[in-house]
Amino acid sequence: MSIPCVLVLPFPAQGHIIPLMNFSKKLVEHGCKVIFVNTDFNHKLVMNSMGEQQLDDSFNGALKLVSISDGLRHDEDRTNFAKLCVTMLSTMPNMLEKLIKEICLNDNCRISCMVADVIMGWALDVGSKFGINGTLFWSSSAAMFALLYNIPKLMDDGIIDSNGLSATKKTFQLSPNMPMMDTEALVWSNVAEDSINLNKIFNYLKHCSQTTNLAKWWLCNTTYELEPQSLSFLPKLLPIGPLLNIYDENKSATISIGQFWEEDLSCMSWLDQQQHNSVVYVAFGSFTLFDQNQFKELALGLDLINRPFLWVVHDQDSKNSTTFPNEFKGYKGKIVKWAPQQKVLSHPSIACFISHCGWNSTLEGLSNGVPFLCWPYHADQFYDKTYICDELKVGLAFNKDEKGLVLSGEIKKKVDQLLSDENIRLRSMELKGKVTMNIAQEGQSSKNFNKFVEWLKE
Ligand code: UDP
């Protein structure tokens, strides 16, 4: 039996690369070879953040990191998603085709399967030219996959127009059992700064959603317990989550591959010195940016809570970085540029998570039984917030004032309220058990993953 070789292609964003990297490590553990394709820009970040760690020694060469251009110049702004998506779609298919030819020639390797991020779905067309089987991987919730998949139906039903928008606020359900959705919080409606860019992003997503049927497998980083309704609405979508980093202190997989920034491990010894269940962890994912007023309120709020806090502020060196207000004391806290988040959330001193509710952060918090204080910014985060607070009931959300700011007093009020709510804590712990059971040997996500690997090996 030959060793399956899988080409993995994430969307070029941190929250897409981390879960696909965790997925790739599992494939390697199960005897597969993986060629992980980043964009040149992100590949550089990933390689730099790894420092001296030796990938080859750790994975015996079974995990190979390669890269292709995203079509933008190195100095161009990659936070403009509309521009990034349009450029990728016009340039990356050719680059990928070239890469596949090179792999076949130089490495003398037959790619058994391509696993593409759903929002890189165009890659399946490229793969099919070479007769490569296609699999789609979705790093957000099953509900968000269902939403993308149903774009044509939403347009037919008049819920959204051909630009993905609705003139008036409407709530709707994709099926009678699924959670309510809101046209004002659609994943594409709040990621662009103007209607032209929004239209470009919507068209890109629409294009990708049309390729879903080219894939033999649809895999999703979720679990049945978390999203029973969405998963029974789309039975082809197999949950294989939560895809967590494998931290085995004695083994290769401890190296963090796929991070854009080096993890500041000093926070772990700081956490060791704190009391159990006392620290407020504050992190907003990889690209949430604060304006100065909001940043100030957050800093002063963290002083007000009068508890230890661990705060990730990762835009400190960038051009538009925010500055700490003069009044900020911060003496109870530790501030880092980038934390080993999964390790942090599993530390016994963590009491709650002030989070932007990106899906990875959501899953990581749930997998560790950590209650949430939700502060969504864009994309799927509003939906995740509602799901955490109203469906799963393991968190509270911050309210904004009339200027749209979360004030320092609101931060203190909600931290106190959350930490005195025993029911939320118990529900979080109960959910932790259910979610993580999935990745035990006989767990449902493990079974789904194994089924996929067996198919790869056939
Ligand atoms: N993350 C991390 N260290 C940090 C902050 C975030 O490792 O200091 C990781 C986090 O564990 C998660 C990912 O970055 O896996 C962020 O993904 P998410 O979907 O939560 O947010 P996004 O960055 O896509 O907005």
Structure report:
The chain is 41% helix and 14% strand. The chain folds into 2 domains: 5-241 and 438-457, Rossmann fold; 266-436, Rossmann fold. Helix 4 packs parallel to helix 5 and helix 11 crosses helix 15 (408-419). The longest helix has 26 residues, at 81-106. With 458 residues, the chain is of the alpha/beta class. It has helices at 14-29, 40-50, 55-59, 81-106, 123-129, 142-149, 151-156, 195-209, 228-233, 266-272, 292-304, 341-345, 359-367, 381-391, 408-419, 422-437, 444-457, and strands at residues 5-9, 33-39, 63-68, 113-117, 133-138, 171-172, 181-182, 217-220, 237-239, 279-283, 309-312, 333-336, 350-355, 372-374, 395-397. Uridine-5'-diphosphate (UDP) binds at residues 13-15, 18, 259, 283, 285-287, 312, 338-339, 341-342, 358-361, 364. Uridine-5'-diphosphate binds next to helix 1, helix 12 and helix 13.
Brief description of this entry?
GO terms for molecular function: quercetin 3-O-glucosyltransferase activity; quercetin 7-O-glucosyltransferase activity. This protein is an alpha/beta fold and 458 residues long. It has helices spanning 14-29, 40-50, 55-59, 81-106, 123-129, 142-149, 151-156, 195-209, 228-233, 266-272, 292-304, 341-345, 359-367, 381-391, 408-419, 422-437, 444-457; strands at residues 5-9, 33-39, 63-68, 113-117, 133-138, 171-172, 181-182, 217-220, 237-239, 279-283, 309-312, 333-336, 350-355, 372-374, 395-397.
Overview features:
17 helices, Rossmann fold, binds uridine-5'-diphosphate, globular, six-stranded parallel β-sheet, seven-stranded parallel β-sheet
